[in-house]
Amino acid sequence: MDTLEKLYKVIDERKENPQEGSYTCYLFEQGLDKILKKIGEECSETIIAAKNGKKDDTVGEICDLMYHLLVMMSAQGITYSDVSEVLENRSLKIGNLKTMKKTDKLT
């Protein structure tokens, strides 16, 4: 079992058995809007850290983003295996390059 899967199980457990003082439980109590807001914040912070070229900061922000994505998954009933299975199937594809639109080439 990898680290993300273990973390997902802890998050899911906190959803089912809330613990006082847990940040994860706080997020579940606040609801989906709060969870999604945190994902947006962490995504922006990840982008800024990467743009600034600070590896340690970028890694930290990626971890924060991944954690909040796992919380959202649990809140939405999306299991770790749901995502893992799709990623596994995608990794088996060869030549999955999508055709770029003219506007894509400009950015």
Task: Describe how the helices and strands are arranged.
Blueprint: H1 3-16, H2 23-30, H3 32-51, H4 55-76, H5 80-91, H6 102-105
Helix pairs in contact: 1-4, 3-4
What pattern of helices and strands is seen along the backbone? HHHHHH
The number of domains: 1
- For the termini, the CA-CA separation is 39 Å
- Mean pLDDT reading: 91
Number of strands: 0
Helix content: over 70%
Uncertain ranges:
none
Level-1 CATH class name: Mainly Alpha
Briefly note the structural class of the backbone.
mainly alpha
Report the radius of gyration as a whole number of Å: 17 Å
Could you say what the CATH architecture is? Orthogonal Bundle
Biggest β-sheet description: none
Which shape, going by the Cα principal axes? globular
Total helical segments: 6
CATH superfamily: MazG-like
Beta-strand residue percentage = under 5%
Say what the CATH topology is: Helix Hairpins
Task: Describe this protein's structure.
The chain is mainly α. The chain has 6 helices and no strands. The relative contact order is 0.12. The mean pLDDT is 91.
Short structural description:
The protein is mainly alpha-helical. It has helices spanning 3-16, 23-30, 32-51, 55-76, 80-91, 102-105.
